[in-house]
Every structure is written in structure tokens, then in C-alpha cells.
Amino acid sequence: MSRPGRDDSPDRLYTLTQGRSRSAPDAPFDLVTLVVAESGPTPGMQSELAAILRMCELPTAVVEIAAELRLPVSITRILLSDLLDAGRISARHPRAAAGHSLPDPDILEQVLVGLRNL
Amino acid sequence: MDSAISDATAERRDAALSATADNGLKIVVVGGFGVGKTTLVRSVSEIRPLNTEETMTQAGRGIDETGGLDGLRAKTSTTVAFDFGRITLDAHNVLYLFGAPGQERFWFLWDRLFSGTLGAVVLVDPRRIEDSWYAIDRLEHHGTPFIVARNDFGGSAHTAAQLREALDLDPGVPLVDCDARSRESSKNVLIALVEHLKTLYAAQETAK
Ligand SMILES: Nc1nc2c(ncn2[C@@H]2O[C@H](COP(=O)(O)OP(=O)(O)OP(=O)(O)O)[C@@H](O)[C@H]2O)c(=O)[nH]1
Ligand SMILES: [Mg+2]
Predict the structure, then answer these.
(1) Which of B20, B63, B115, B181 qualifies as a FRET site for A20, CA 20 to 30 Å off?
(2) Which ligand is nearest to the CA of B42?
(3) Percent of chain A with pLDDT over 70
(4) The domain that contains B176 carries what CATH number?
(5) B179, B152 contact by CB (below 8 A)
(6) pTM value?
(7) Chain B nearest-CA residue for A78
(8) Which residues surround ligand 2, an ion (CB under 5 A)?
(9) Mind listing the domains of chain A with CATH numbers?
(10) pLDDT by residue (tens digit) across B3-46?
């Protein structure tokens, strides 16, 4: 099942990632890691990569990039790893506690203030 | 007239975050079909809720771990879709709200998608309480803090105590009422969750 207009056939995904299967950067891309372009697209660049660079002139979350490109999150992560390795993007990873521990009270307070101001 | 594409581009530019944004946070709204997840996200989101998806294999592993093409060709991959919205909290913090279906296959992806989540809201339609049993089970299993929000569809005869009983809710888990169509009500649900997290944190500190 797939939304109309979405083409996520294995062949397309394979082409996009050039068959590479693994993205294992030191700090993996979280759904809400904010990505910022460090340079603009170059001529002849793979269109998805160019689209990411244009989209990320200002910070943009991984999940927003995936939605915009209409690609699964895991494929988007592979493309982002490439751009990161090439120095074309930087990644602002979430500060919130990893795993199952609770976030610290400072963050919680900031979230509360933000929500109350809505 | 602008083309649809430039409209979309313009919309995205309007929706852009500030250059100082550097900390993404997550809250997940989970519940059965048609319980109001998307409605709640839309009520508080500053962007029109977007939809995306993740692919997984039957073993619960992703295509990034199964040898790429081989993994895809094995036809064991399943797709789960979820929607999300966004709330800019301040110059640094951006909260993403995820509307996640509670169905079984979704939970294989929970750790990959939602590790590090602040917490979850379980939306309950009081006419179909049993739809939320599984989600509550899984959240307890994953150790994800959550609250329960009873969505007001009218005509519920249950008292809060009866609902707690039917859900077998731990006394420490808050149960709040909500109308997902209302921004104020949805906002209060999120506030109730974060207040609950503060309480849990304080209890954890005292226990140390
Ligand atoms: N009366 C009432 N109706 C609601 C409320 N919240 C949502 N609805 C309605 O219920 C229907 C389903 O809401 P959705 O937000 O699409 O539910 P969902 O959980 O995202 O549904 P799926 O993604 O299909 O599982 C819509 O017609 C909403 O307008 C509520 O608080 N009260
Ligand atoms: Mg929905």
C-alpha cells in the first residue's frame, strides 16, 4: 500500500543509495535531528541530494526531509550520511536523553514554558 | 498564477525554522484507528501535518541492516506510515508531535523511530476502550512514560474510575479529558504529559 505519486519501488531506492546498505555515522540521524546545508547544490548533483541542500538552508528535521522527498526515513538517512561525509551538511542532534532515561528538568521546564505560550 | 510546485516551495519557506533552532524533541500520540490522532496533531501544529513512512522487514530490521537490495528483494519489508506536526517552543527547541497507529507491526519500529521520545499520549475513544489496550501494553514494555487522554466523542457513560479500571491503569498514570478538535484542549493534554514527566523525574531523584 502506498500513497499515490509515491514511487518507492526497490529499484528506485537501490539507485538512490547506489546499493549501499548501511549508514553508520558516529552519531546516527534521529527523526528530529536538525540538518543545515553547508553549501548549495552543484550542477549535475543527484536531484534528491540537491533538493536536500535547498531544503536545509535553514534547519530542517530529518522527518521533514523524508516527508518532502517522499522517501522512507531509512533511505533519507543514507542520503544524509553521504552529504555529511562530504561536508555538505551539518547535523544538530537532539540533546534530550537517549534511551529510556528521563530528560533533565531544565529541558522539561523549557518545553512547558513553550507550550503555555502557545 | 503560481504553479503548484512554487506554492509548495513558498509554503515550506514560510514554515522554515529559525536559524538558531538546534534541539529537536519528540512526543508521540498513539491510539487506535480513527481515535483522533491526526486531529490532535493538527490542532496544535504550526505546519499542516505531514505524512511519512518507514520500511521494515519482518524480523523488525530495516533495509539499512539487511544488505540493501537483497533485503528489499526478500519481500519481507513492510511499510508503516505516520504523520507529524511541529511546535516551535523557543529560539532553540522545536517539538515534533507524531501521530502513530497503535497496530502491532508498528511497534517493531518503535525503538528506531521513537527512542529518546519525551513521552507519549494514548488517545482513547471511550466507546472503543479495548483498542488502546495494546498501545498501553507496549508503552509499559518499552518503559516510555505516558498519559491517557479520553477523547470526547459524546455519549460515554464511563466514569473516570471505570475507564481506569477497564484500562488497568497504574494509579500514577494521569487520565485527562480532551477534545482533539480544540487547540486549547490539545495543548492542555501536552502540558499534562510534561507535568507528569516532571513528577516522574522528581520521584526518581528522591529515590536516589
Ligand atoms: N466528536 C469528536 N470527534 C473527533 C475528535 N477528534 C477527532 N474527531 C473526529 O474523528 C475522526 C477521526 O479523526 P482522525 O484525527 O482522523 O483520527 P486518527 O486517529 O488520525 O485516524 P487514523 O489515522 O485513520 O487512525 C475525524 O472525523 C475527526 O473530526 C473529538 O475529540 N471529538
Ligand atoms: Mg490519522
Answers:
(1) B115
(2) 1
(3) 72
(4) 3.40.50.300
(5) yes
(6) 0.86
(7) B64
(8) B 37-38
(9) 10-116 (1.10.10)
(10) 455 566 666 656 899 999 999 999 999 998 899 999 999 999 99
